[in-house]
Amino acid sequence: MTVVNFHFADWKDKLAKARVLIVGDVMLDRYWFGDVERISPEAPVPVVRVVREEMRPGGAANVARNVASLGSQATLLSVVGDDEAGKKLEALIQSEKVISLFQRDAQLPTTVKLRVIGRQQQLLRVDFETQPSREALAGKLTDFKARIGSADVVLLSDYGKGGLRHIAQMIESATAAKKPVIVDPKGSDWRKYQGAFMITPNRSELQQVVGLWRDENELAAKVTQLRQTLKIATLLLTRSEEGMSLFTEEGSWHIPTRAREVFDVSGAGDTVVATLGVFLAAGAPLREAVYFANEAAGIVVGKFGTAVVLPEELL
């Protein structure tokens, strides 16, 4: 199907009034950049002489900063540790005009992903993570119910770190308040997402749940059965170089990817969910929101690390 050429300028003012509530697992992305000039005499690994460090919000925090970068109001609800990484993460997102509502867990180290980069290549990633306590999560659920009324759309970013243990109750509360819920899923058990308006898996995530498919007809049949079982109105499948496929009660719609050089796919799913959220919150039709999400994904994969898309890039 031919893609309609929608115009971002038509929505810019409406996006400024959109209010998006983001809930999920947050993390601090640390990058160590260095020079690689020799191999270690202790083991067959490169020696990186670190010359620069960079920190960026990751996980649901990257979703929130993408919402804010498009000019919409972003409120982020999550659990972090009472530590240096948690404080740094909060300062970073607040500097990008994100409203932060963090529950602090003194027993929880904030999730940190450390990437070592040499010659523009990722050489190593080290993860520091622990499951949050039930007390902190219960507090987050209370905050969610207090904030749901002032949001236009709810984004649930599940990175499988334990921060969305009450996701079923959140979806139920949002649905009761007539707020659309978009879920970026994780894992093979999606029963907890039942009743959401939309889920946005990539190919490998969907295959974990429905298995492999031989052709587009079998894919459509599997997705239809999944949507009906989970009572989910819409599924958006992101397919990397093959673009995106939208599945609804009315059928499916495929949108091809824009031909751009891919530099780094990390965080592209965050950008997709954020862009969908802000356009739906602004009142955009579903296909138009998907169109801009596809455009935004094509832009962000050309950037290094977790990044955002700016309005002028969509213009």
Short descriptors:
315 residues; alpha/beta; nine-stranded mixed beta sheet; four-stranded mixed beta sheet; 10 helices; 13 strands
SSE diagram, text form:
Elements: H1 12-15, E1 19-24, E2 26-39, E3 46-59, H2 60-69, E4 73-81, H3 84-95, E5 98-105, E6 112-118, E7 121-128, H4 134-147, E8 153-157, H5 167-176, E9 181-184, E10 198-199, H6 203-210, H7 216-230, E11 234-238, E12 244-248, E13 251-255, H8 268-281, H9 286-300, H10 311-314
Parallel strand pairs: 1-4, 1-8, 2-6, 4-5, 8-9, 9-10, 10-11
Antiparallel strand pairs: 2-3, 6-7, 11-12, 12-13
Brief write-up:
With 315 residues, the chain is of the alpha/beta class. It has helices at 12-15, 60-69, 84-95, 134-147, 167-176, 203-210, 216-230, 268-281, 286-300, 311-314, and strands at residues 19-24, 26-39, 46-59, 73-81, 98-105, 112-118, 121-128, 153-157, 181-184, 198-199, 234-238, 244-248, 251-255.
